[in-house]
Amino acid sequence: MIVAGLGCRTECAAEEIVALVREAEARAHCQATALAAPATRARAPSMRRAADELRLALLSVDHAALEQAQPRCVTRSDVALRAVGLASVAEAAALAAAGPTSRLRLPRISSAHATCAIAEIA
């Protein structure tokens, strides 16, 4: 399984998410088999539209799983830490959804309103 983990601001459009996932896939030389986002963002209409356009399942990751994945994250965002209490959202979502033995294939990349990281089962 290859999971594209996402983090985004509430105003992020589906088109921006899709473009960022495609950029991440190109950089990682792979194709995601699923998307993952924090439970609070997975319900957002733009996230659901992006998943539909990419034809990928959207996995909702709860806060506890995101916290557990933090030690395996390689990047840190003080902005995310202040906003949601997590130093890395996209990486944690990807790692948590891909499972406990997963590893990052691509650390977090960013667009104006979103972040994306790719994890795979190791």
Describe the structure.
This protein has 122 residues and is an alpha/beta fold. The chain has one domain: CobE/GbiG C-terminal domain (Nucleotidyltransferase, domain 5), CATH 3.30.420. 43% of the residues lie in helices and 28% in strands. It has helices at residues 14-28, 39-42, 45-54, 63-69, 78-84, 90-98; strands at 2-8, 34-38, 57-61, 102-110, 114-121. The chain has a five-stranded mixed sheet. Helix 1 (14-28) crosses helix 3 and helix 4 (63-69) packs across helix 6. The chain is globular. The model has no long low-confidence stretch (mean pLDDT 95).
Question: In short, what is this structure?
Answer:
The protein is of the alpha/beta class.
SSE topology:
Blueprint: E1 2-8, H1 14-28, E2 34-38, H2 39-42, H3 45-54, E3 57-61, H4 63-69, H5 78-84, H6 90-98, E4 102-110, E5 114-121
Parallel strand pairs: 1-2, 2-3
Antiparallel strand pairs: 1-5, 4-5
| Number of separate domains | 1
Percent of residues in beta strands? 25-35%
Would you list the SSEs in sequence order as H and E?
Answer: EHEHHEHHHEE
List low-pLDDT spans: none
CATH architecture assignment name: 2-Layer Sandwich
Question: What distinguishing features does this structure have?
Answer:
122 residues; alpha/beta; Nucleotidyltransferase, domain 5; 5-stranded mixed β-sheet; 6 helices; 28% strand
